[in-house]
Amino acid sequence: MRIAVVRGSLMTGLTNRVPLSDSIRSPNVDGMRFNVLAKLGEAVTVRPYVTFVVHNCHVSQLRPAGVNVAQRLYRGSNGNISRNIPRKTQHHHLLQHDKTLIRFCSSKSSASQSQSQSPLAWQIGQYGGNSTLKLTECQMPVIKKANEVLIKQVHAASVNPIDVKNRSGYGAVFLNKARGVKPGDEFPLTLGRDCSGVVAEIGRGVRDIKEGDNVWTTINAVRQGTFADYVIATTDEVGLKPSNLTHIEAASIPYVATTNWSAIYAVAKIRPANALGKRALILGGSGGVGTFGIQLLKAWGVNVTVTCSENAFDLVYGLGAHHAVDYKSPNILEELLKHGQYDLIVNTIGESMEDMSVKLIKEKAYAQYVTLVAPFIDEMEKKGLFAGGLSSSLMLFQKSRKFSALGGTYRWAFAQPNSFALKEVAKLVEDGKIKPVIDETFDFQDLPAAFERVEKGHLRGKVVVNVAHGDLGSHVTGEVPRLFDE
Ligand SMILES: NC(=O)c1ccc[n+]([C@@H]2O[C@H](COP(=O)([O-])OP(=O)(O)OC[C@H]3O[C@@H](n4cnc5c(N)ncnc54)[C@H](OP(=O)(O)O)[C@@H]3O)[C@@H](O)[C@H]2O)c1
């Protein structure tokens, strides 16, 4: 007997893409997900919601005992069977073939529906390329500490360059030490650092967050990640989601927000109270970190210059940058110096920017050069924890001397979970001072394609994975409304 694992969803999100029959628009099925074992060619009931026929879902993977991989194949309109057909075709096909067969049964709360299923997570069992990512049925995470929160319905998560690097093994030496596990014992490992979702359970010490709250979070890299139906986070990592954002929009923010907070607020010590009138340069203004950094600094009254490709000028000016300089310009240094030197330089690009930055930083002890691309982890990967730690400390010392000889300060910064930062950023979002900037959104089952998009580079904002198939919202994309009129 051939058995297929079928996983899918019938969501409001679909209405954006294909015309639906009235029955499918039934509010009872909004947000519904199904995940079922089905014999091919048979009508199955996905209790308690829907009955449909699996004739358009072909087995790509037999299911031997103990292997839980959800995978679907669809027959396209040309008759070919394929795995990664575009969402539009996939849904269109599903509806075209099945709309007369789909009928809705009684509805139940999504919470009780979720409880009846094993949660799914994208996990890796080894480091490597995208083929290591497997959609897997896993154990329901359980609250073990008083300050933990279970986010049962992860609505959306973002994919960051760090996820792609971690998939390939970057940081494993350091993170395994922090996790207290031997190499290899970290698997199966769920990647993903941030998400937006709904709290269903809280630890007994949790006070400010309650069941049912919409939250967003950046979680510590030592935990199991957010490319999953269910995530555990601590109260230090979670904040209430801004009420004016969809979960998709909200998920684009926590990781880049806490990264910028770490660089600007914690390391450079630039805060709302002392920021007004300062001049900042963001090297790399058009990606996830840069598009958020522009808005945060602008909101605090900083004059912001960025480097980016010329085709991103509209985006960065729309977000509030005062000056943008094409990093491919042969006169980049002169152009960046046109308005004087900088109190703060945030480097999201790498060491290649350092010699130029020495000439751009103000010759004052308070002037800060903060790089987010520090050699710390690379050194540990190459040389091991002790020797790598030593060599990176030496590098930090030498670079600090180079900058301090001119009067400025050289610093490294790392993304840190920070519930205070999320709370402050939520206020700025609700005040309309910070907007989500999303390059592209992918369905949860297409996570490998989302990783490919991040790997391809040239991002304009964030890549977000729509885990619970929620409302896409109206975030900033290619066509950028100006947030600030100069
Ligand atoms: N230390 C930490 O904890 C931490 C945290 C977050 C991120 N990071 C690191 O910070 C870096 C940026 O992250 P991200 O999420 O913003 O990446 P991203 O979303 O991929 O954005 C990178 C942006 O830089 C632009 N770019 C490429 N080369 C450039 C150059 N020479 N000058 C100016 N812009 C350039 C790219 O567009 P075009 O190529 O089209 O110009 C793209 O828009 C990554 O290396 C990431 O690993 C570190």
**What are the bound molecules?**
NADP nicotinamide-adenine-dinucleotide phosphate
Task: Provide the gyration radius in Å.
Answer: 24 Å
* Beta-strand percentage range: 15-25%
Biggest beta sheet attributes: 7 strands, mixed
SSE class = alpha/beta
Shape summary: globular
Helical content class: 25-40%
Total of DSSP H or I helical runs spanning 4+ residues: 15
Number of strands: 23
Give the distance, in angstroms, between the N- and C-terminal Cα atoms. 67 Å
Low-confidence stretches: 1-116, 478-486
Mean pLDDT: 79
Task: Summarize the structure in words.
With 486 residues, the chain is an alpha/beta fold. 28% of the residues lie in helices and 23% in strands. It is built from 15 helices and 23 strands. The chain has helices at residues 87-98, 110-115, 161-167, 172-179, 247-251, 254-267, 272-275, 288-299, 313-318, 332-337, 354-360, 376-383, 385-404, 419-430, 447-456, and strands at 3-10, 32-39, 43-46, 50-53, 74-75, 81-82, 103-104, 120-124, 134-137, 148-159, 189-190, 194-202, 214-218, 231-234, 238-240, 279-283, 303-308, 323-326, 344-347, 368-371, 409-412, 438-443, 462-466. The strands form six sheets. Strands 10, 12, 13, 14, 15, 22 and 23 form a seven-stranded mixed β-sheet that branches. A six-stranded parallel β-sheet has the order 18-17-16-19-20-21, sandwiched between helices. The protein has a three-stranded antiparallel β-sheet with strand order 3-4-7, with no helix packed on it. Strand 19, helix 11 (354-360) and strand 20 (368-371) form a beta-alpha-beta unit. Helix 6 packs across helix 8 and helix 12 (376-383) packs antiparallel against helix 13. The chain is globular, with a radius of gyration of 24 Å. The termini are far apart. The model is unreliable at 1-116 and 478-486 (pLDDT under 50). The structure holds NADP nicotinamide-adenine-dinucleotide phosphate. NADP nicotinamide-adenine-dinucleotide phosphate binds at residues 160-162, 259, 283-284, 286-290, 307-309, 327, 348-349, 372-373, 413-415, 457-459. It is found in: Mitochondrion.
